[in-house]
Amino acid sequence: VKDKLFESLSEIVGSENVTIDPTDLYCYSFDAFSYPFIDKKLFKFRPTAVVMPTTTEQVSKIVKFAYENRIPVIPKGAGTSISGGSIPTQGGIIVDLTRMNKIKKIDVENLLVVVEPGIIDDDLNLALKSYGFFFPPDPGSHEYCTVGGMVANNAGGMRAIKYGATRDHVKSLEVVLPDGRIIRTSPSVLKISSGYSLTQLFVGSEGTLGIITEITLKLTPLPEHRTLVVIAFKDLEDAGRCVSEIRKSGIIPSSLELVERYGIKTINEILKGNIPEADALLFAEFDGSFDEAVRQAKRAEEIIKKYEIAYIRFIDDENEIERFFKARQGAAIRYIKLVPELARIGMGEDFVVPVSAVPKALKKAREIFEKKGIKVMLVSHIGDGNIHPFIMIDLTKKEEQWQKILEAAREVNNMAIELGGTSSGEHGVGISRREFLPKEYGEAVEVMKAIKRAIDPENIMNPGKIFE
Amino acid sequence: VKDKLFESLSEIVGSENVTIDPTDLYCYSFDAFSYPFIDKKLFKFRPTAVVMPTTTEQVSKIVKFAYENRIPVIPKGAGTSISGGSIPTQGGIIVDLTRMNKIKKIDVENLLVVVEPGIIDDDLNLALKSYGFFFPPDPGSHEYCTVGGMVANNAGGMRAIKYGATRDHVKSLEVVLPDGRIIRTSPSVLKISSGYSLTQLFVGSEGTLGIITEITLKLTPLPEHRTLVVIAFKDLEDAGRCVSEIRKSGIIPSSLELVERYGIKTINEILKGNIPEADALLFAEFDGSFDEAVRQAKRAEEIIKKYEIAYIRFIDDENEIERFFKARQGAAIRYIKLVPELARIGMGEDFVVPVSAVPKALKKAREIFEKKGIKVMLVSHIGDGNIHPFIMIDLTKKEEQWQKILEAAREVNNMAIELGGTSSGEHGVGISRREFLPKEYGEAVEVMKAIKRAIDPENIMNPGKIFE
Lengths: 468, 468
Known about the structure:
The structure is a homodimer.
Chain A: H1 4-13, E1 18-19, H2 22-27, H3 35-38, H4 40-43, E2 49-51, H5 56-68, E3 73-76, E4 93-96, E5 103-107, E6 112-115, H6 121-129, E7 133-134, H7 147-153, H8 160-163, E8 170-176, E9 182-184, H9 198-202, E10 211-218, E11 220-221, E12 225-233, H10 236-248, E13 255-260, H11 261-271, E14 280-288, H12 290-304, E15 309-315, H13 318-338, E16 342-345, E17 351-352, H14 358-371, E18 375-381, E19 386-394, H15 398-418, H16 437-441, H17 444-455
Parallel strand pairs in A: 2-4, 3-4
Antiparallel strand pairs in A: 1-2, 5-6, 6-10, 7-11, 8-9, 8-10, 12-14, 12-15, 13-14, 13-18, 16-19, 17-19, 18-19
Helix pairs in contact in A: 1-5, 10-14, 11-13, 14-15
């Protein structure tokens, strides 16, 4: 059925770049957030149309058309959100930005790179590598997530502890506002102190304030050397204490990753390794010049040795380090694959607590899930206090488990907030964490809402996300 | 005269913490911005009252009172703004925050420090030093400026090239909104991705959106060692090219400071040194472990040697480094002291251009000022592209010169903007750079104004600043 909406959008981008085909609309009705597969209420949402622009001008015209007709607009990258950030809960036009995936300029002179939002994280880094630079944020989905999505959600990853999250690398954005106007959030310079930082306001706004159509990132020199120390701790809380001590000592690791007991088995499988059974496995990476990386690793070792450990290994070979990190990332996924009836659920999966509260939070989170009989593997960007409970649902009993998972997720998020933390360290709020915002921010949520109203008075930009 | 306003404010903070004494009001009628001393129109502004709160609750009550009575509120720290950020151009209540100067918590466990806005930058760093940490931003006024002012203006300094500006260190703020409500902009964690970043919106908002009453900063480990390389270049543009090449090579200096020809003479005087006459003096600092700092300095030396230099010196002694940086900071001030009729003028003094445009911008800026017969010394955080023309006015001829300085400042700022830069790298907009905002931001200024209206609908918070 070629309806009026199809015709109007086709005029802007050509009919080959619009779809209202029910099969397509079905595919665009969800993202990596698993809730819709279980909650039938969410499962029914469909976009009214999907459009695939290739230029900012097209995006502007699409949004202007939507604004005039009061149709919701949902920007979408690779759909790797596990908070439901791109689910069309109020219908509307999904603007698929994956065709806007060019690197516009690698400007080594000015230490900047200009990209379109649809470029894949790894593709960008591959291009930067030959210049000796990189874009440090590395979410678990770095092989397929878009940089636009990373900006919209302020993605983090394993290197955030040293290099910061996506926010810390964005220097300027081109944005299509909810009425179709195109703005640049700031001049593209390394240092600026004029006016409000619209750049920083749009980072992490999850598509609710406008569509990001161009991104200027600063370049970071690739470290010359990396040293990875892998340690198995007999006690999970000890691992937390050790991390806290390393951080306090002034050492700045480039990664501090923790995988719980269950993960060791699968990591061994992936690596064909023989790390002994233990409560927790810590990946501590140090980078810089060769001397610097090795020296920091040695300093960390002095701290680590004070704890009861079952295994320690130093790795200086880049390929071997990559192999270990791949195993770390694959640990939970692999575990699921071993047990066919299990599926991963993204709920309560991204909380952060102050670093000092990490040991307590690890223990408490385990208790919360175990009490409800939910299988969970705690994986953690532990140096930032960011804990990812990797929840596994038994698909054969999902109806009974769903309510329990919802309750447990609520309990861990509330625990994190009570400890002075947040429900989201790097995945964003989307639809899955909206209820925690008032508790986390109090009256400040009203300020956020006032900003949303001021910039998007008709509430057409990704409505129903972030705020309830 | 004890008027009604005095009585109302006295009820909140006690009469000893309020003043409407004309002498006091005179003293609070300006800051370090020099314009009012010359333009009689600006010189006449006076606050209606000055109040010195000691708690957030008092600030809240003061603002609520002002809100109900539609009285402008001007937050003020040490008054070191050279953009007129705290000049009461519309009268109103100046809230002097210098009595709120406590360090509330040095939380090494969580790598955070919590301070009141009135604390002096150097006092904070002195307290952090014994823990092995520091707060890296170091504006020229670090001995007397307040951290609250640094946050409000997103202050930078010499280390911004490696450690970022103030923005990059702020994790959470407590803010009194324009109606007196108290909010916390976010939980105090190292990593967060929930909701809009109000923290980053308030950083650099120059008191126009609310009063910052508490600041949570992340702690940065003090580097173990610093190595300073001081180089005299025969040619100014060569210095610019060399800096660009160092940056491109992937070396990350902790400072890259440039002083022009005139400065060398005064630096020699201060140091009792014998640096030969040259077009430009470059301070390149490298920090980290001893090996790392020295190694980076050596790598930089290889690049530097390709240029015609008149002098190079490597300094590894901390005290000697401090002595050199003090001389760098004092260069222009000292020059003024040598010539009694000169006074410094802060106009067009903070522009930024892309790093690649630095050589061109240095040359162009000199031409602009010289053509108008204005004495200028170009000092620069050159690694960020941030250039400070230190303009000197002949007090005996200030009436004739004033118009010329205004024109030259406009010319350099416009040049910077045309080169893709900004009129302010670290000093803020205040009243002195408002006219450049539309040119720098275009339509985006309307978004900033919409945010201002949404958060401060009665326009009582530092009115007339940032926007014209």
